[in-house]
Structure formats: C-alpha cells, structure tokens
C-alpha cells in the first residue's frame, strides 16, 4: 500500500487529480451510485436548469461498459503519460501556466460540445494535451501497435486514422487535434515566430494561487523564435501511447 501511495503522490499535481477525478467519477456512473445522465454535457439542463456542474463532470466522466472499457483505459494511459510529460517538462515549475492551458482547452471543448451536442469531453481533451506534447517533441520516436515506430508529430494523426478504421469514428480525435493546435499556436508559435502577444499568459491571481517553483524538468522544448536575417543593404525586414518516446540518435 505504501508503494502505491508513494507512486500516487509522485504524479504531478494536475495530472494526479485529473486522472483521479476521471477514474472516480467514471466508476460512480458505472455502478449507478449517481445516474450518469447527471454527468454528461447537455445544453438544455445546463442553460435552462442551471446545472452548472455538467461541463466539469463531462470532462471527468466516461461511460465504462463492455464496448468502451478498453478505450477508457487507453485514454487514462494517454492522460497520465502525456499530461505528466508536459507538466514535468516544458511547464515544469510553472503550474499556473499549465493549468491555464488546460483551462483553455477545456473551455474550447465545452463550447464545441454545446454547439455540436457532444456529451463526453474526455476524448478531445486528452487528445489536445497529447497533440501539444507531440508538437513540442516532433522528432521523438514513439512506438505503436505491432512494433511500429514513427515520429511523435504523427501520433495524433495515427490515432485519428486508427479510430476511423476500427470504429468508423474520428470526430473526437479531430476536435482534440484542432483544440491542441490552437493552444500550441497561441502558446508558442504566435508569440515566438510571429512576434505577437502571449495570449495564453495566466492572470496574476492564478500565479499567486499556483506560484512558480524552482523545479526544473526537461521533456520537450518550445519552438525557437525566428532570427531576422540582415539583407546585403543593411536593412532588417520582417520575420516571419503507446510506449515510451526517445529521440533520434540513441536516447
């Protein structure tokens, strides 16, 4: 029991409680302790009956059954693996920044879910976090089923194609990729490569609530800003899963 406790508290804060709430709420719905209809995102009860908890429970709840149990476990693995890597990597020592990215992704999931009648948000939310990690670690080699190996930048699209072939779905993965791409663009691409403002900088009160620490991680690096080239005339013009990952070259 002590080993489990040590492992549990070694998981980074946001990943730990995201995974815990997901498992607990899904099991509550699975065993009928609370009817699962109270957890899903539904426009009418959310807007007209003021059931304001539904956007949050729709993130944590997943309907576990004979046909969905394996998919739920895979989602939990992706959540644990890639959220942890982000939280201890590029966001190490910056909990407010990571929480703000999660909050942005979740808000996008809720808005899209209400517009397209999407009752469960776990799939797109997990895929959005996985996508951000994959973009930060494009050249890391990841392993998939049957020993296939490829660069991490292709993993979200492989998952999309895999689900499309097996179940005829893919919409959840596509939404997760879209949301993750928007988050990655606003966090890194827009401010660093296009010189725009940092639109996903957490507000001061979040920094006070989740202050920066001195912890230094190191899995994934932010894209480097483009360096403006000086033309001959001297003027400067505008700048324009499955398994562990490891970098090319032997890590």
Automatic annotation (TrEMBL):
UniProt entry tagged with the keyword Endoplasmic reticulum: yes
Positions of transmembrane segments: 17-36, 56-80, 100-118, 158-188
Membrane topology: Multi-pass membrane protein
The family this protein is said to belong to: Belongs to the derlin family.
Keywords in alphabetical order: Endoplasmic reticulum, Membrane, Transmembrane, Transmembrane helix
Entry GO terms, CC: endoplasmic reticulum membrane
Biological process according to GO: response to stress
Provenance organism: Papilio xuthus
SUPFAM superfamilies: Rhomboid-like
Name this protein carries in UniProt: Derlin
Main location: endoplasmic reticulum
Entry keyword Transferase: no
Domain of life of the organism encoding this protein: Eukaryota
Function: May be involved in the degradation of misfolded endoplasmic reticulum (ER) luminal proteins.
Places the protein is found: Endoplasmic reticulum membrane
């Amino acid at each position: 029991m002590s080993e489990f406790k040590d492992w549990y508290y070694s998981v980074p804060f946001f990943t730990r409680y995201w995974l815990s709430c997901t498992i607990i709420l899904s099991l509550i719905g699975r065993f009928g302790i609370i009817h699962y209809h109270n957890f899903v995102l539904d426009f009418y009860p959310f807007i007209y009956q003021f059931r304001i908890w539904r956007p949050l429970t729709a993130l944590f709840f997943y309907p576990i059954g004979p046909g969905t149990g394996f998919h739920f476990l895979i989602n939990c693995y992706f959540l644990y693996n890639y959220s942890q890597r982000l939280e201890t990597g590029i966001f190490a020592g910056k909990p407010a920044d990571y929480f703000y990215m999660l909050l942005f992704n979740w808000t996008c999931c809720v808005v899209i879910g209400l517009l397209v009648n999407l009752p469960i948000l776990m799939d797109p939310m997990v895929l959005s976090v996985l996508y951000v990690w994959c973009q930060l670690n494009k050249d890391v080699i990841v392993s998939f089923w049957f020993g296939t190996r490829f660069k991490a930048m292709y993993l979200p699209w492989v998952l999309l194609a895999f689900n499309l072939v097996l179940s005829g779905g893919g919409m959840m993965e596509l939404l997760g990729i879209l949301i993750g791409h928007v988050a990655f663009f606003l966090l890194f691409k827009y401010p660093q490569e296009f010189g725009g403002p940092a639109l996903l900088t957490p507000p001061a009160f979040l920094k006070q609530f989740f202050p920066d620490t001195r912890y230094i991680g190191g899995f994934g690096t932010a894209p480097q800003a483009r360096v403006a080239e000086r033309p001959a005339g001297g003027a400067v013009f505008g700048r324009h899963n499955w398994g562990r990952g490891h970098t090319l070259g032997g890590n």
